[in-house]
Amino acid sequence: MSTVDQGDEKDLELMFAEARRYPLLTAEQEREVDGRKWRAVKDLHELFATSTELRNYLHTFVSQCQINPPDIGRFANREQHFVLRRELAAYFTDGNQREQASEFATKFTRARSDKQRRQLTDALELPASLTVGMAVAMLRRAGGQFPDSVADAIANWERQWNPPVLALSLERDQLKTLRQSLRHYSEARDALVMHNLRLVYSIAAKYKGRGVSYLDLVQEGTLGLIRAAEKFEFEKGFRFSTYCFNWITQAVRRYVGDVGTLVRFPTHVQEQMGRLYKERAVEQARTGLEPDDETLAAKLGMDIEKTRQLLQLRNLGVSLDAPRFDDDETSLVETLPSEAFGDTEESAEQASLHRFLSHAVDKLDKSERTVVIARWGLHDGPPLSRAEVAETMGVSREWVRQLERSALKKLQKQDEMKAAWDDYHDVGNY
Question: Above 60 in pLDDT, residue 415?
Answer without folding.
Answer: yes
